[in-house]
Amino acid sequence: CVGLKEEDVAMMIDERYLKLVSLKPKVSKEVIKELYLSHPVYLHTSLYEGFGLSIAEAGLCGCALISTDVGIAEDLKDGVHCLKIEKRNPQSLYEKLSIFLKNEELLKSISHNAKDFFQDFTWKNCAEKTLKVYEKVMG
User: C-alpha angle 94/39/57, rounded to 5°?
Assistant: First the structure.
């Protein structure tokens, strides 16, 4: 968990599982990138997201994605770019994690597809598309 305090995480996770959670209260961009690159799966369990930059970053770093249907994840296809989970449903999360544990080929496929999906998500492309919208509106 990046950016959360230990006491906040302790309230959300059964005490027996706390030892499985790595807490990173404040880390640099480089450390975050290393975390993405060193983990095969990224869990995105937000209840709400404006965009969801972290899921894009994780996808670009090759993580297989498991996500609630919020922010940019709404545009991801379940079973193609990610495995989608229901909000506030631990059983749904357990089932999707189990799928990845049992099916390494699917994990690799989703990892590859997510990376492809996010390839065009650059600041340059964003600026060019924004400029086109302005030009169209301004006539």
Answer: 100
Residue-wise pLDDT for 115-137, tens only, equals 999 999 888 998 999 999 999 99
Angle in degrees, CA 57, 117, 76, rounded to 5:
90
Question: 41-44 and 64-67 as β-strands: parallel, antiparallel, unpaired?
Answer: parallel
d(CA 57, CA 67): 13
Whether pTM exceeds 0.85: no
The dihedral sign for the CA sequence 27, 60, 56, 132:
positive
Cα–Cα distance for residue pair 95/97, rounded to 1 Å? 6
Cα separation of 41 and 110, whole Å? 10
